[in-house]
Amino acid sequence: MTTHRAPQSVAASAQPVERTVTAALVLAVVVGFGWMAGMVYTVIQWQS
User: Among the four 6, 12, 26, 36, which has the fewest Cβ within 10 Å?
Assistant: First the structure.
């Protein structure tokens, strides 16, 4: 007799992808703030 199994939900398999995308976005924001701080520092040093 064949056993009918419910297909795995898409949400369960998408969880690791969502975590990876969130981590990448957080990293991008941190790098962006670092870049902006570097630009401000450079402009301040040029004016000195």
Answer: 6
Distance (Å) of CA 14 to CA 5, 28, 32, 39, 45: 20, 21, 27, 37, 47
Cα separation, 33 vs 14, whole angstroms: 29
Q: How far is residue 43's CA from residue 13's CA, in Å, rounded to a whole number?
A: 47
Q: pTM score > 0.70 for this model?
A: no
Residue that the structure tokens 């795995």 belong to: 8
CA dihedral 17, 23, 27, 33 (to 10 degrees): 120
Torsion of CA 9, 10, 16, 19, to 10 degrees: -120
